[in-house]
Design a protein that fits this description.
It is a single chain. By secondary structure, the chain is mostly helical. It is built from ten helices and no strands. The protein has helices at residues 11-39, 41-66, 71-119, 126-141, 151-174, 179-186, 192-230, 236-246, 252-297, 305-345. α2 crosses α5 and α7 (192-230) packs antiparallel against α8. The chain is globular, with a radius of gyration of 25 Å. The two termini are 46 Å apart. The relative contact order is 0.10.
Length: 351
Amino acid sequence: MPAEARPLLPEGARRTAAWCAVALLVAGVAAVFVWLCVVFKAAVTPALLALLGSALLGPLHRRLLRMKVRRSLAAGLTVLAVLAVVGGATYVVVAALVDTGDQIVDSLRQAAQDIARHFGAAGTSLDDLAANARQLLAKFGGTAASGVISGLSVVGQMLATAVLALILVFFFLRDSDRAVGALRSLAPRSTGDLVEAMGRRAFEAVEGFMRGTTFVALVDAVLIGIGLLVLRVPGAIGLTALVFITAYIPYLGAFLSGAVAVLVALADRGFAIALWTLGVVLAVQVIEGHLLQPLVQSRTVQMHPAVVMLAITAGASVAGILGMLLAVPLTAAFFGVVGELRSRYGAGGPA
């Protein structure tokens, strides 16, 4: 009898090789998917924005449906409500930034001069700092601004994207009941239930993230705005608008808006008021970190701050500022799918 053949590699090496092959396959599929999204970003960007808008507006649409409003009319009323609210908010934010923008910029320039005078800039002039900042912003914007030649083209592109996103929001809301059937038709018959469950969990994660982030951004803006008004910091309304907008970029947005507020206070109100402003910003961040974020994350997918920062960095490298805004909700959707798979197969077999 011939001796029993021995495997070429030990069991541990074969398992490691199998997992490496799986990791390479997943990485290759993800790279192709990201490449396709970048190539077709003119269509992908409105679709993703419409998906986020549908997740945020889903409760209002469902309430209208419970009031026996027809689906098309309910979707149309929801989009009109969004136009009214977002249009009004945009007008307030833009008006505040226009009215106080010059004052904020002058305060930041004065703060830079004070810092350079007290700590020394090692021969670096403010012009050099401004040029470096512009180069950094252009590099950081990367893909999002690569095809832009003038400001008019940017405005036109943004308007076209917004109009297309609104139209897609209408169709997403109106035809949301057909989404399950579409998912089932694309998936093999044996995996229809799993694909439906993963789709629902991913959308619930995005919906929870959008509602929670909007709530946190509103609370942060109101509290910091009240503090800036009490301290009589110049441009308080514009800074409040900046806090609300940057709150959609977790962690990094709060740092940027808080730094701008402290520098403005330092330039116009002195060192003591700057310290009080810093205290207000830190107090609001403590409230957010220990009260608001746990309350929000308990209703949606929980993500470690390191994962969030890596997602923001990856999104910025792929699509600039727009990628930073979209990275975290997409990561939340991914973790929602992973959570569904773990709930089904984590115990060693299907649930």
